[in-house]
Specification:
This protein has 428 residues and is of the alpha+beta class. It has helices spanning 78-85, 104-117, 172-188, 206-219, 234-237, 257-272, 300-310, 387-391, 417-423, and strands at residues 2-6, 11-15, 18-24, 26-29, 32-35, 39-42, 47-52, 56-62, 67-70, 92-98, 122-126, 139-145, 159-162, 194-198, 223-227, 243-246, 275-281, 296-297, 314-320, 323-328, 334-338, 341-347, 354-359, 365-375, 380-386, 398-406, 412-415. Strands 13-12-11-14-10-15-16 form a seven-stranded mixed sheet, sandwiched between helices. A six-stranded antiparallel sheet has the order 17-25-24-23-26-27. Helix 3 (172-188) packs parallel to helix 4 (206-219). It is elongated, with a radius of gyration of 25 Å.
Length: 428
């Protein structure tokens, strides 16, 4: 613990874990001015920039690995960000865009704090499925802001929507619909005046531009705030007038791909551990995105004929309308036209280790789970999930299969993109 005197205008950069207590004067952090007796927290491995509004004394409690350094004049962007948003009316939907590791989460906290200080009811939506700060990885998550924060991770998701994957490249049309759904929920159910939406860092290719522009057209934000390094956001915001472009902080820590993977895996464990084994009757709680038991199981003779045509042994097969789902003794996922039917071949035990979302009747997440096995003869799934989900099983209306396979320690071992093709298989 130490007491530090800060002269008016002094700017410090803190990497947590740390606690800052204002003993005298006033100190600014993340859109909020803290006065004598007030305090705020810097989370572990997170950075926060603070500024003395007047001559001040602060008590600093630095945890293991915490860092504190005084910055040079003009080095940080704290004044630019504050001046840009200080006088804005922040009602409506505010969409934050930018590449990875430019401070979008910090900006979301700042805008949320500012809106709260204006007397608005504020909701935060974290739509970064890979590095979600509010809820589990693979989700869009929502929370209401009722006190000032320094980091989004200080909030807990009140609602989440399972997006199945940790990146949106293959699923962005569904992401647009679900982000819209989250925003409408915040506005209409929570009666939020301000909805701040933090987005993922997928920006730099044509499909990413198409996604972000479709999202803008769908949710119709009152303000688009971009953190721009060079000119990478111009293709996204071209033609829109309600745009504020801000510079990135100079010292945001860039996470490696391995760092991001570790963060996600810790997230899976946090929301599933300690796991309980749960048997789910699929007649009562079906699989949302794979209608295996909604049709008719094909008999042995037809299975033999189908196996001969496909050239692989067929263990089970289900006819659902003009489509046949066949479980085969083969590692390949195949789609083939047979007679008047589209046959979707799936490897036996394809479900083992799949991350799943257990959803309620409104499509919101009750909890995550990991599929252990589907017992087709009993029409039952056995999965690992949290004890909280077990208690809330009555709320679960369906199970959505994810596109990620985990091992018993919740480590990501495979992305199962083929399942997405089965979900949305084209008519051949």
């Amino acid at each position: 613990m130490s007491i530090r005197v800060m002269r008016s205008g002094d700017v410090y950069r803190i990497e947590g874990p740390a606690k800052v207590v204002v003993k005298r004067g006033r100190v600014y952090a993340t859109g909020v001015v803290y006065s004598e007796g007030q305090s705020f927290t810097v989370l572990r491995a997170r950075k926060l920039v603070i500024k003395a509004v007047e001559d001040s004394e602060v008590e600093l409690v630095l945890g293991p690995g915490a860092l504190l350094e005084k910055t040079s004049p003009g080095e940080e962007v704290i004044d630019i960000w504050e001046k840009s948003v200080a006088e804005m009316d922040l009602r409506g939907i505010i969409l934050i865009i930018g590449v990875m590791d430019v401070g979008k989460s910090t900006l979301a906290a700042l805008l949320g704090n500012k809106a709260l200080s204006q007397g608005h009811r504020v909701a935060i939506i974290d739509a970064d499925v890979g590095q979600n700060d509010l809820g589990p990885p693979t989700t869009i998550s929502l929370a209401r802001l009722d006190k000032y924060i320094t980091h989004l991770r200080q909030l807990t998701a009140e609602k989440s929507i399972f997006l199945q994957a940790t990146s949106l490249e293959r699923i962005w049309p569904r992401a647009v619909k679900q982000i819209y759904k989250a925003a409408r929920y915040a506005l209409e159910v929570w009666k939020a005046d301000t909805v701040v939406i933090n987005t993922d860092g997928w920006i730099l290719d044509e499909e990413a531009v198409a996604f972000k522009r479709r999202l803008i057209e769908e949710i119709k934000p009152s303000l688009i705030v971009g953190i721009q390094v060079e000119n990478e956001l111009l293709p996204i915001v071209k033609g829109y007038s309600n745009v504020l472009l801000l510079p990135p902080p100079p010292h945001v820590r860039a996470k490696s791909r391995e760092d991001r993977k570790i963060h996600r895996e810790m997230g899976y464990g946090r929301y599933i551990f300690p796991p309980v084994e749960l048997a789910v009757p699929l007649d009562k709680i079906p699989i949302c995105n794979l209608p295996l038991f909604k049709g008719v199981e094909i008999g042995d003779e037809l299975k033999r004929m189908l196996a001969k045509t496909l050239g692989v042994p067929v263990v089970r097969a289900y006819q659902v309308g003009e489509r046949v789902y066949a479980l085969v003794q083969n590692d390949a996922w195949l789609m083939k036209k047979v007679g008047g039917f589209q046959v979707v071949c799936m490897p036996l035990e394809f479900e083992k280790g799949l991350l799943v979302g257990l959803e309620d009747g409104e499509g919101f997440l009750v909890g995550l789970g990991v599929m252990k096995k589907i017992y087709y003869d009993k029409r039952k799934a056995v999965l690992y999930t949290s004890s909280d989900v077990e208690k809330r099983l009555g709320e679960v209306k369906c199970i959505r299969l994810g596109l990620i396979r985990l091992d018993e320690n919740f480590n990501e071992v495979e992305k199962v993109a083929s399942l997405l093709k089965v979900e949305h298989a084209p008519h051949l």
